[in-house]
Specification:
Two copies of one chain form a homodimer. By secondary structure, the first copy, chain A, is mainly alpha-helical. Chain A has three domains: 7-139, MgtE N-terminal domain-like (MgtE N-terminal fold, Alpha Horseshoe); 146-258, CBS-domain (Roll), CATH 3.10.580.10; 278-451, Tetracycline Repressor, domain 2. Chain A contains 22 helices and six strands. In chain A, helix 11 (153-162) links the parallel strand 1 and strand 2 (172-176). The longest helix of chain A is centred in the last third of the chain and has 34 residues, at 349-382. The first copy, chain A, starts with 6 loop residues before the first helix and ends with a helix. At the A-B interface, helix 12, helix 14, helix 15, helix 16 and helix 17 of A face helix 12, helix 14, helix 15, helix 16 and helix 17 of B. Chains A, B: Belongs to the SLC41A transporter family. Chains A, B: This is Magnesium transporter MgtE. Chains A, B: The chain crosses the membrane at residues 286-306, 312-339, 360-381, 387-414, 426-448.
Chain lengths: 452, 452
């Protein structure tokens, strides 16, 4: 295959080879493709050619390609393959990918899918499914190389060589004792530079950074990004080595967790992407919107409580959207700072106090500046010092309160081990809306005689 | 050092060894620590011990530790080290880390810092600084192993062994021809499984996934996460291999880009974290807030344009926050879906059209449901069918328009090669605020005689 071929040229060449029944040519092209590209090609060719495409692929190629497809397409491919071939593919698939495939299916479908599989593989996948979703146990793979601590470097290298096909990343070997307990780690670099007859236990690092099976995947991502590892071992409570998590899965998790934070912060609904159907997207977005609708009604009923004030000074309505909007926004700003800060920092009480005081100061500074600014604008616009003072002092107070609410609420949720990002739109917006309207109309009502 | 020691116990043991002048004991502990942990220990010990801490560390340990500190601390360490030792550390530092350190300094400080450094290293770092920030050229490292294509596998393994200390990740070797042009890649797996006397060019992959020096770092992250690589080669226009980007940097970039998206979407100001001073944080947050303040004034002046309508039917004010809030929120929802979708998808015109129609449908569905709901609420609350119809039909229209604005504006920015996330608060909020108030009061004014 020519190096210079574009993606479209490859698609055409593949279709050509399928049409003319040239399996050798097809294989020549496929051999140079990465799994992601194979999957893209499979999705790009017209569906009438897909059966033949799969027929011409080796089981290994189908397995690699599978891992780059989404669940629906994976099931589609398995169905096209028939029971015998699909069982082979399932046997070859990495157990964490298999676990994530069957996580979306119901019991009957799982039964059907796994019925013909190698029992050992089925047991491994089922044991993986026992861990909570989004924990280390759920995303770990069992394809890694471990060595007993009494091995020499030479023996370790031989074992590595033997299992090279199986291990995803070869940067580290994990060292275990007789009870399969994790006792150390050697890097491939150590093996290269060490003496062939040195014992592994003499060159290994014993202070291994590791994750427990129940550790949250976000914590695992934090460890990997801190330590710049390409894999991290996973242990059970008794320090028994049971799996490894690799950096490629971690990148997907970091992206997924960031998306979840954004979904929650923007109250945009769970897991909507470019391929989500409009009914599904609307269904996922509606709960937040309906909640916000009722919050809006609540704000409305607060305003209606001040109907007399508003009736007397209609100009008060002009500043309502500004005050509510500003308070909501400063709360969201603080919330975003806290939520994203927690992605890379752990917090102790001292830092929490420091952070709250920092935000209090931020609130005061922006409160003073924006309050003074709006005082002059309102004064000039409506030619009323009192109105300026009412609007300015309200904004000053609501900005401080909004900032603190956006800081303290996610911190409390974090302490209660609730994901702080759920504080998002609804909670912060409700509190800030209600408080800002109460403060604004409260102050205005106090000065009502001078506003008239 | 005992394996079971906690972080605090290690801190105490280190302080003890520093106080008693036991360098050997200090080194025993340090040798088992990862760079991140060394940095944490350095930051945890009281500052009066830090000079001695640095004195007891090897140059290599200081270099490793440096890379885990932030810029201020790095400069602090360099100052404590004195010119001779700090030059050694700078020589040893990876050039991408060095480039990111000096990116924050002014010309004079850079001059002073680099004055004593190895000229070759200085040249490399300065050439790195010529690339735009956030491009592949800026984040690549020159610590990687390349081999000429005429090498045998045995020669490749020997070279790998020789440079093992230098190469960060050993999973792939990049293969070049006589002009240093990138012609292929071999994995360490291929080397292990191949015959020692095979030529590298016979076993290498020729279809190498690579990044150009000018490629945006976000694109590089996309490539690495798609292909599950631990490193990716970087070339100049003539296909000359000039560097490598490793997965550990990519994880940091994915986190950084997600934070930037959240900063922009929540208009929360650039780069505020837990350690930012309150004056700085307030300064960074203020531009957005002041912009929003003027947007609020703009909304206010639109409302004041309908002063007569509002004076006649004060109840219209009750629904104002709800309509503006809902329209803003549906816009933000769509914006978040588009911005995060673009992180993992590329879009062609066909998909853009599909996405816009999807969102149009979503807007219609949520518009109908929320519109009907608010019709009944307004009707029951204020006992007026007309008010119900005015509020309901306004919400129906503004939800459709808000959804489309949140979709189309970021797509246009994306097509114009402007980061769609900047559409964030300001742009979408302004447009949605103004449109929603105009529609709401426009419809209300049309029915004003029946509303009285």
């Amino acid at each position: 295959m020519s190096l210079a071929m574009t993606e479209n040229e490859i698609t055409l060449a593949l279709i050509q080879s399928l049409k003319e029944g040239k399996k050798m040519l097809f294989q020549d092209i496929m051999e140079e493709l990465q799994p992601y590209d194979m999957a893209q090609q499979y999705l790009h060719i017209p569906s009438k050619h897909r059966n033949k495409f799969l027929l011409y692929c080796t089981i290994e190629q189908i397995t690699e390609m599978m891992q780059e497809l989404d669940t629906d397409e994976q099931l589609n491919v398995l169905q096209k393959l028939g029971i015998e071939k699909s069982t082979k593919v399932l046997d070859l698939m990495e157990n964490d990918d298999l676990a994530s495939l069957i996580a979306d299916l119901d019991a009957e479908e799982i039964e059907e899918l796994l019925s013909e599989m190698n029992q050992e593989e089925v047991d491994i996948v089922q044991s993986l499914m026992n861990y909570e979703p989004e924990t280390a146990g759920r995303i770990m793979t069992n394809r890694y190389v471990w060595i007993p601590k009494h091995y020499t470097i030479r023996e370790a290298v031989d074992k590595l060589k033997h299992f090279a096909e199986l291990a995803e990343y070869l940067n580290y070997l994990y060292v275990i004792d007789e009870q399969k307990k994790l006792v150390g780690v050697v890097s491939y670099k150590d093996l290269l530079l060490g003496d062939l007859y040195d014992k592994v236990e003499d060159v290994m690092y014993t202070r291994v950074v590791k994750a427990d099976v129940h550790t949250d995947q976000e914590e695992v991502a934090k460890l990997i990004s801190r330590y710049d590892f390409v894999s991290i071992p996973v242990i059970e409570a008794d320090n028994k080595l049971v799996g490894v998590i690799t950096v490629d899965d971690i990148i997907d998790i970091v992206i997924q967790e960031a998306n979840e934070d954004i979904e929650k912060l923007s109250a945009s609904g769970k897991a909507i992407d470019f391929n989500t159907k409009s009914m599904v997207a609307a269904y996922r977005r509606l709960p937040w919107l309906i909640l916000l609708l009722f919050i809006g009604i609540l704000s409305g009923s607060i305003i209606s409580g001040f109907e007399d004030t508003l009736q007397t000074v209609v100009a008060l309505a002009f500043f309502m959207p500004m005050i509510a909007g500003m308070t909501g926004n400063t709360g969201t700003q603080s919330l975003a700072v806290v939520v994203r800060g927690l992605v890379s920092h752990d917090l102790n009480s001292k830092q929490v106090v420091k952070l709250v005081f920092r935000e209090l100061w931020v609130g005061i500074i922006i409160g003073v500046i924006c309050g003074v600014l709006i005082f002059f604008i309102a004064y000039v616009w409506r030619d009323s010092v009192t109105l300026g003072l009412v609007v300015g002092s309200s904004l000053f107070l609501t900005l401080i309160i909004g900032t603190l609410a956006g800081t303290i609420i996610p911190l409390i949720l974090y302490r209660l081990k609730i994901d702080p990002a759920v504080a998002s739109g609804p909670l912060i917006t409700t509190i800030n809306d209600i408080l800002s309207l109460l403060i604004y109309f409260g102050i205005a009502t106090m000065f009502i005689s001078r506003l008239m």
